[in-house]
Each structure stands twice: as structure tokens, then as C-alpha cells.
Amino acid sequence: MKRLQWPSWMPVDPFIVLLLGTVGLAALFPARDTAADVASGASTAAIALLFFLYGARLSTREAIAGFKHWRLHVTVLASTFVVFPLLGLAARGLVPVLLTHSLFTGLLFLTLVPSTIQSSIAFTSIARGNVPAAICAGSFSSLAGIVITPLLAAALLGGSGGGFSADSLIKIVLQLLVPFVAGQVLRPWVGGFITRHKKVLGLVDRGSILLVVYTAFSEGMVQGIWHQVIPLRLGGLLVVEAALLGVMLLLTWYGSRALGFTREDRIAIQFAGSKKSLASGLPMASVLFGAHASLAVLPLMLFHQMQLMVCAVIAKRRSRDPRNAPVAIAPAATSRTAVGTGARYR
Fold first, then answer.
1. 332-342 and 131-156 are packed helices; what angle lies between their axes, rounded to 10 degrees?
2. 76, 138, 302, 317, 337 from 83: Cα distances, Å
3. What pTM was computed for the model?
4. What is the mean pLDDT of each successive set of 10 residues along the chain, which is 346 residues long?
């Protein structure tokens, strides 16, 4: 008898499994009292370390060189920080039919976070698109998101953000922007070490995010906010997110064609402009929403897995398209690196 196997084109991110396990751990054994204070302090330190590493990894020279393709990067940034939020605001009309107010707030926050880097590179490489453009577009989006996401959250979420206030902007500067800038400043001295220990520091990345998730969901359990979510509402959220992803995939693909981009550039725009970063969004939500972060990041976690599964199918089909023959878009080493880094699909 032939054994059934999960299709290779439909990836289940192992990190999502770890995240779900962390949520389960927080549900069974939430941090309380002194343990909660310790977890909160460790989470704050982990977030600062995370963004320090982001800053230390980003090559300033590569970022400056990437500005040569400014039209593509402006298109991706507009998709990420203009079109996405507009669609998020339009979803307000679905409250309370499909979404609760809390889930809508999380959905709107999802539309404000920056694009991914690794998975955008991986899918662009598989589909034989412009890999260097995807690298720069993802990097620019992540860098811009440190400033733009909190500002958009202040403007669009206001007091509904579960404790969001001007103090949150100060926390963003101290916990995210200052460590990021420190990483950039110290990159000439620590960049080599980080490059040599990519795998170990990758574990630090993910461990930091898991700690943030545990702290956020523990606070949610202690405050009993999970009683607000029922399976029917989660089903409605999935339907809305599927529609959101579908619209963005169509807009980035056909919109970039209308703007006159080449096929390779359109592939990079579609994959960089239609996705949202779980790695950047989780720490930001922890700072912005505090005890309400668990509900705020739930839509982002679901969207993350959905975008991987759908984009994996699209990338495979694009790679087999006869009009998309291999082109000299980057040195072979760059493509191999892109595929390797993207294996994590973060």
C-alpha cells in the first residue's frame, strides 16, 4: 500500500509548530506573579537582542547599492505600508458579523507590520525571479517597519490597541530602534562573528521570539481574554485572511505588470509585497499591546502559515512557466544562499 505523504509544495513551517507548542505551554502553565515579572524582563531583553542582531546583519553597503532599483522598492513599500493597511481598514465593516473587535484589531495590526526577508528570497529564487531585488526589498521593508509600523499603529489603532499610548512609541525607540542602530554601528566589529555563527544566532532569534510568545500568551491566560475567542470566529478570521492574501497576490502581480516591470521584477514584487513578517511583528506586538498581545498576534500567526502554503504553490508553478526561463539575475552563490536562508521560511 502506498504511504500518503504531505505534499512538498505545501510546507508546514516547523517554527509554527514550536509556536503552537509554546502557546499550549502558556495555556497549561502560564507565568504568574514573580515568574511573570521574570518572564517579562527576559522578554524585554530578548527583544532588544533580537533587533540588535537584525541591525548587525544588515549590510549598509548592500542596502545603499539596492537603492538603484528604487521603483521596485517603492512599489513593495507601498504595497506593505499603504495598500495592506487600507484593506485592513476596509475589514472594519466585517465587525461584528465575521470578526470581533479584538480580532479586527489584530487583523489591522497584521496589515501594518513589514514584509518578510527569508521567505521572500526563497520563493523568488524558486520562481526564478530577481533575487537581489527581493533581498533589498525585504531588508528595506524590515528597516522601515521599525519606524513606520508604530506610527501607523498610533494613527490607526489609537486607544483601541489594548494599552497603546505615546509611551509605547518610547518603548519602541528604546527596545527596537536603539538596539538596531547599535547593531549597525557595531557591525564592522561584530559582523564577521555573526556571519560565522549564523546557525547558532538563528537559534537565538527563534528562542527570543518563543519567549516573547510565551510571555504574551501567559498574560492573556491570566487575564482570561481567551474566553473571547470561539471556533466560529476563528473560522471567520481565516476566511477574511484568505481573501486579504488573495487580493494582495493579484494586486502585486497585475499591478506591477501595469507599471511596466519585467517578469523577474514582478516575481520579486509579488513575493515581497504580499507577505508579512512574523519575526518582526511578534516583538512589536509585545511592546505595543502588552497583556493584549496574545489576541493581537493570533491573526499574524495564522496569516504567516497561510502565506507560506499559498506562495509555495505559486513559486513552483512560476518556476515551470516556459516564459520564465533561467536568466542571469545573480551569481550562483547568491541564489544558493537565498534558497538556503529561505529554508526557514520566516
1. 40
2. 10, 17, 20, 26, 30
3. 0.76
4. 44 73 85 84 82 76 68 94 96 91 92 88 87 82 86 78 57 77 87 81 78 78 68 90 97 96 95 90 80 79 87 87 52 40 40
